[in-house]
Amino acid sequence: MPDWVRTRRREIGARIRAARLRAGLTQIQLGDRIGRDIRTIHRWEYAQRVPTLEDLLLLADALGLHPSDLFDDDAA
């Protein structure tokens, strides 16, 4: 896997974490909102796993974001 892919995965995970914290949610609370467990949320935030498109849409909705905000450097 190219280094830029790993870098982008870490950036997206950091944006998920930052948005969750801004929303005042724990990993458990976010997981409950989108039907995923805490391990899954943790793995996304720390770039151990990649969320699916469906997961990204659920995350954006639960966090009050547009899906592109999870990718856009200016939105994070």
Write the topology of this structure:
Blueprint: H1 3-22, H2 27-34, H3 38-45, H4 53-63
Helix pairs in contact: 2-3
Short note summarizing the structure:
The chain is mainly α and 76 residues long.
- Number of strand elements: 0
Name the helicity range: 55-70%
The top level CATH class name: Mainly Alpha
String of helices and strands: HHHH
- CATH superfamily name? lambda repressor-like DNA-binding domains
Structural class given helices, strands, pairing? mainly alpha
Radius of gyration: 11 Å
Overall shape: globular
Strand content: under 5%
Unreliable stretches (pLDDT < 50, length at least 5) are none
Look at the structure and give the mean pLDDT: 93
The third-level CATH topology is 434 Repressor (Amino-terminal Domain)
Specify the CATH architecture: Orthogonal Bundle
- Major sheet attributes: none
| Amino-to-carboxy terminus distance | 25 Å
Instruction: Please give the count of helices.
Output: 4
Question: How many separate structural domains?
Answer: 1
